[in-house]
């Protein structure tokens, strides 16, 4: 009987231990508050009390947006930047009689040649250009030198009807029924040109990534030619040149790689180019044309670097489309 009574007593003690632990913890906290109040009475006389102020600061940190550090993050980072373009609806431009060029730039030093391309194309009065930039491309266009104009000045060049940043995709919280900007840009464009195409951009497009609006448009491109047909009176870029080639009536994407020589010679670059120049090539019934770069001195100081000659052969290649 003694052992049974002992077991019962131990079981009862173990059952009450959690309650006792809670009580002891509560008493300990009360004792700490009493001690602190006696030693630092001013803490409890503040308005609001220190524990409420701490809660308010935490809430404010959660609600305050992160500091914007890039030209891509905010249009207000450049004081003369115009308001964002109106919400684009491709269906509103079907019969405007203009050729639609979606001109994109990615993170290469050759981005500074973008104004030259636009100016060279300004002789075409029936051309509508919408410019689309990746965050890294924006970093080259912040008025830091005469050949690196601001985004504002680019938006005012002839034929430019809109300049888009990644932030424009989420200008307001999306709800069902709203248009999706990268889809509307794809529908709107008769031709997409990515000049320059950096090594990073080449890899992302070849691998189907879409973490920026440029890549989202490329990823959502009508590769079958069955969704986005030719608009009334507008000839698709490759329809006449490649007669007899299956699926030649697709909208096209022209890319102009520009990168350091070591990057260009890297085996992974060849692998990515094989995708664009091989199975995706317009000559093979695809939708991509690659404008290979030429050897030239680089901004990084390397000799024999590989860049695209945007001011001459590059823009001529775009112009003939």
From TrEMBL:
Keywords: Coenzyme A biosynthesis, Membrane, Transmembrane, Transmembrane helix
Entries under InterPro entries matching the protein: Flavin_trans-like (IPR036551), Flavoprotein (IPR003382)
Positions of the Flavoprotein domain: 100-276
Record field: transmembrane: 20-37
Bias type Polar residues, positions: 53-72
Protein origin, superkingdom: Eukaryota
Single GO term (MF): phosphopantothenoylcysteine decarboxylase activity
GO cellular component: phosphopantothenoylcysteine decarboxylase complex
Segments for region (Disordered): 47-88
GO annotation, biological process: coenzyme A biosynthetic process
Family to which the UniProt record says this protein belongs: Belongs to the HFCD (homooligomeric flavin containing Cys decarboxylase) superfamily.
PANTHER family with a match to the protein in the record: HOMO-OLIGOMERIC FLAVIN CONTAINING CYS DECARBOXYLASE FAMILY, PHOSPHOPANTOTHENOYLCYSTEINE DECARBOXYLASE
Protein name (record): Flavoprotein domain-containing protein
Biological classification of the source: Eukaryota, Fungi, Dikarya, Ascomycota, Pezizomycotina
């Amino acid at each position: 009987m003694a052992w049974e009574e002992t077991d019962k007593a131990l079981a009862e003690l173990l059952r009450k231990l959690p309650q006792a632990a809670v009580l002891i913890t509560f008493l300990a906290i009360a004792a700490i508050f009493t001690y602190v109040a006696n030693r630092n009475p001013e803490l409890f006389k503040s308005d609001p009390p220190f524990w409420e102020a701490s809660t308010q600061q935490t809430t404010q940190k959660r609600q305050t947006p992160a500091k914007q550090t890039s030209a891509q993050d905010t249009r207000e980072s450049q004081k003369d930047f115009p308001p964002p373009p109106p919400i684009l609806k491709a269906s509103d431009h079907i019969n405007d009689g203009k050729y639609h060029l979606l001109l994109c730039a990615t993170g290469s030093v050759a981005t500074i040649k973008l104004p030259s391309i636009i100016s060279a194309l300004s002789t075409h009065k029936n051309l509508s250009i919408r410019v689309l930039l990746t965050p890294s491309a924006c970093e080259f266009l912040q008025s830091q030198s005469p050949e690196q104009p601001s985004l504002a000045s680019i938006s005012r060049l002839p034929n430019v009807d809109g300049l888009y940043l990644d932030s424009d995709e989420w200008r307001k919280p999306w709800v069902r029924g709203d248009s999706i900007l990268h889809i509307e840009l794809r529908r709107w464009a008769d031709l997409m040109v990515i000049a320059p195409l950096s090594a990073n951009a080449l890899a992302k497009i070849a691998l189907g990534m879409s973490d920026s609006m440029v890549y989202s448009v490329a990823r959502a491109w009508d590769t079958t030619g069955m969704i986005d047909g030719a608009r009334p009176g507008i000839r698709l870029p490759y329809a006449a040149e490649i007669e007899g080639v299956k699926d030649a009536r697709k909208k096209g994407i022209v890319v102009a790689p520009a990168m350091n020589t070591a990057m260009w010679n890297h085996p992974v670059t060849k692998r990515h180019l094989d995708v664009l120049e091989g199975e995706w090539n317009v000559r093979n019934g695809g939708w991509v044309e690659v404008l290979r770069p030429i050897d030239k001195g680089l901004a990084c100081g390397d000799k024999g670097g590989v860049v695209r000659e945007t001011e001459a052969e590059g823009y001529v290649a775009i112009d003939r489309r």
